[in-house]
Specification:
The protein is 40% helix and 15% strand. The chain contains 18 helices and 17 strands.
Length: 498
Amino acid sequence: MKILTAAQIRKLDEYTIANEPISSTNLMERAAARFTDRFTLSYGPDSKVAVLCGPGNNGGDGLCIARMLTRLGYQVTSYAVRTSDKGSEDFSINLRRLEDISPVKEIRDEDHLPDLSAFDVLIDGLFGSGLSRPVEGLFALVVERMNSSPSPTVSIDIPSGLYSDEPSPDGAIVRASQTFTFQVPKLAFMLPENGPYTGHWEVVEIGLHPEALAKAETDKVLITRAEIKSFLQPRGTFSHKGNYGKACIIAGSKGTMGAAVLSGLACLRSGIGLLTLHIPCCGYDIIQTSLPEAMASCDISSDHFSCLPDLEPYTVIGAGPGIGTSSAACKALRELLTNVNVPMVLDADALNILSENRELLELLPENTILTPHPKEFERLAGKTENGFEQLERQKEFSKKHKVIVVRKGAHTAVSIPDGRVFFNNSGNPGMATGGSGDALTGIITAALGTYEPWQAAILGVHLHGLAADLALKEQSQESLLPTDMIDHIGSAYKVLWS
């Protein structure tokens, strides 16, 4: 699913109006109807609803929604914030239509600020994605009143005050509980600093012209099951283990053999043909006991990674979980980067070694997959001021080093050397626990046995999150373990194939 800018969405609106054809007012009606349909799934007709509207088209959406909810029997109180008598044409049309069936209360100064505590839910229709200035003055007071209310707030398209394509200025921003966004997600929704404002967001399709949507160019994409299914490969009847990759995962050291077990188990569950774990000698019994389906290759060191196995048998390499950052590990990783000629994923301590020995970045083979969490990425690429800047830094890093970067988080961002970025939308906060990254390394390593590196990366992150979502049906976010996620990889694959 494409992620478009506010300017692109505005052009889509204009194209739809001109070529469907449909009037702007009727397009607003359609958008409001889709919003209302989704809203009524969460809030019943006995709900007391306050709809707060600004003077632009987002306010017009709000007035239209208020009218539809009123006709459905909801107890709706509508407010129009008016610092002047000006308003967009569609706002004015919908104001008149609503006033024909229900009065609209005006907020013209501080004395008119309403008490919102008596409502069950608030609908935020103050400003949309075209906002280009900070929310100040009377509007800021309304936002403050909304944010201090105990009632949940549902934003129309985007929380008022939040910029969709760049860092938001110092001004008031609605802290929504839910956001029902129109047609496509906004880039701001993908960035961690905006999580407190967007709440749980969902895309509501409003029927913008499919031809224009198909032609809209973007380098940012939200990963959906449709994208995954477009390249997902079924297993052939006469296929054998050699068809699905011969992987070696270099992992573990004394005290961190759990990382090797988790990455290995996840790799096996994700469909690798053959798996060997290269481990220090202290982990031999652990691997042979806990992962009977895997083979073990022992390092000459008893307790840490210090040398390479023979790389010749392997078609895929994973390296990093729990290997430590000793001088011996650094030397061995350098040797790996110098000699490897198969697809590879690097995680955890392998990334820490890279950040401490930056000359090794020049040795990375093209399309190597790096899977840093935000702090690891910061050590690799440098500090940034906000999520937008960090995203640009990530794109630059991928292009410069010709690598795939999987920057992990709530909406894991996968950047590839051609400049595209794929955002993941599966997963949940229960994944914020030690070992989750080790599992992801195993999943991506397995996917590299069958798919192109960029496909393996986005399949891996989506499958990882989807397995965690399925595991949450049996666990709480607090109790979720990486082994729970791994146990549900099979069910996640079934969902992708359904």
